Amino acid sequence: MATIHLDQVRKVYGKVVAVADVSLEILEGEFVVLLGPSGCGKTTILRCLAGLEHVDGGRVIIGGRDVTAAPPAARGIAMVFQSYAVFPHMTVFDNIAFGLRMRRLPPAEVRGQVEEGAALLQIDHLLDRHPAQLSGGQRQRVAVARAIVMKPQVLLMDEPLSNLDALLRLQMRAEFKRLHHEIRSTTVYVTHDQVEALSLGERIAVMREGQIVQCDTPARVYATPANRFVGSFIGSPPMNFMEATMRSRDGGRTVQVDGVRIRMDGTAAPNDAPDASVVLGIRPEHIAVDLDRTADAIPGRLLVLEPVGPYQLLTVQASGGSVKATAPEEFRADPGAQVWLRLNPARIRLFDPRTGEALGTRT
């Protein structure tokens, strides 16, 4: 295991800045996920870490050693790619043993490490098979086993589950969590799938346009997004956003949205201005939907009701636009019905309408 330190790493392709002076500290044994949309620079960072790309600025430090100019073989890393990259003409045993044999380890040691790695990935009964005889999930396990038997200081994974179907992805996520708990290798995992990021990462680094816009625990990234981009990218459905006005009067603070005032004690107004335009953000599960008018409730009209197992997802037209909310599975209403939305004040987040950055903190 080793720590990782990216110090102002920069990568440019022609006129395109793929990675813009990114700094990131990853602790020994930590599982960090780089999350973001396609083209945000997450895979480029991984390739810079692996030595597959030369950085145009900054430093890459692994285990306290500056490896910025070092070749991949000298970095103490192993990488699992999006494609399985297993050798079709080799058995599972030979695929896993490939790197060990390149190191010219004794045959007995190779066999012991292969069998140990295969047992960890629960494919020890498949060692005599060829990749064509395996499922997609089994082939991905072979690729992971081939990486971990090298006992790398750092394990890098580049969207390893993207080629699997939904059920296999679910199973492999659980396998990866179990595997990391057992080997505690410092791991950097790249994905555009927020569910993978939230379920696997001890920390998530959310990326946009070559920069890390927030790096925190999954719970904090979800509950307290640093800006509107993070709020809209994390969550399915994503966070709702509404234009609002923050008021600070009579010893308390309120936020006014659609003509309704909601007390926001514990939230700082921007620059403590008595009246300030803000963007209110709130997750669908923190909105209660009623058929009868209640205090501090925003009026709306039900557009769509979607049963999704243990709850229902509602799309409601309010004066400021459509809003997503959840309701119990027994909730009944017809499209077009008048409904009332009650926002949980403790779960409201406020953003600057110009920059999109989060405003204030809650007590």
How does this model look, in words?
With 363 residues, the chain is an alpha+beta fold. The protein folds into two domains: 4-233, Rossmann fold (3-Layer(aba) Sandwich); 241-353, Nucleic acid-binding proteins (OB fold (Dihydrolipoamide Acetyltransferase, E2P)), CATH 2.40.50.140. It contains eight helices and 21 strands. The chain has helices spanning 42-50, 92-102, 107-120, 136-148, 166-183, 194-200, 218-223, 228-233; strands spanning 4-13, 16-26, 31-35, 57-62, 65-66, 77-80, 154-158, 186-191, 203-208, 211-216, 240-249, 252-257, 260-263, 275-282, 287-290, 297-307, 311-318, 321-328, 338-343, 349-351, 358-359. A six-stranded mixed β-sheet has the order 6-7-8-3-9-10, with helices on both faces. A hairpin with a 2-residue loop joins strand 11 and strand 12 (252-257). Helix 2 packs parallel to helix 4 (136-148) and helix 3 packs across helix 4 (136-148). The two termini are 38 Å apart. The model is unreliable at 267-271 (pLDDT under 50).
